[in-house]
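Model it.
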Amino acid sequence: MTRALIADDERLMRDQLRARLMEVWPQLEIVAEARNGEEAVTLTAQHQPDIVFLDIRMPVLTGVDAARQIAQLPTYEEAGGWPGCEIVFITAYDQYAVQAFEQGVVDYVLKPAERERLQVTMERVKARMLDRARQSANGNDGSNDASAPLPAHTPGMQQLLQRLAAQISPQSPPKLQWIQATVRQGIQMIPVADVLFFISDEKYTRVQTATLEALIRKPIKELMEELDMSLFWQIHRSTLVNTKAIAGVSRDERGRQLVSVRGHSEKLEVSRSYTGLFKSM
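Modeled.
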């Protein structure tokens, strides 16, 4: 049975969407309901649903910010096989949502949820889920399309979330242009455009350019909120790579994808959740 989570700060809207979903998809199981974005992230991690319905404007965390955090939740081998989830936004603000969402990156439901539009959305979601199931059944190695990223993990989705966040919060700060990092015993200002990749561990994030290596105390999740995600792609939970620095992608003897970076000899592993970024390889 397909499992879903509904997140909306208005109880009547949650009730209305639940009722409409039962009409268009009776087999869908609503496993949890959240009243704000923070609850949505927590309950998604707890229940690992197949679909998460997120109201764009919610207290504590907006639906956009919640989607960003959900995209960072462990998937596949890191979470016992959970493949992540489809994101469907709930919005009353069709003046920007419809145009953005109908590009096909992600689906949406307008408030109040109408049966006809919801039916279209659910058919599209079902088709994507069925396609991934078929790919999984036909795959012949550990790096097939079954582990392709879901919308929340793709660069296109990350860029869409940035645009929506800017529209919801017009006063958001400009994208990061400089990194203040520790180099040996001093502090150095590094242009973001010069960074080849970022790799995080438990305490630090390594900043690598063609000429130096530095450390900062900022996790990947925070960097993604500050960087221009049209320039950087996430290829692992702990790795961001500058798209202009990608020289190519190869596979090792275990079938894992490895990204070669111009100006540096190190190869960066692509985790299973992000192999779909390089489907042609």
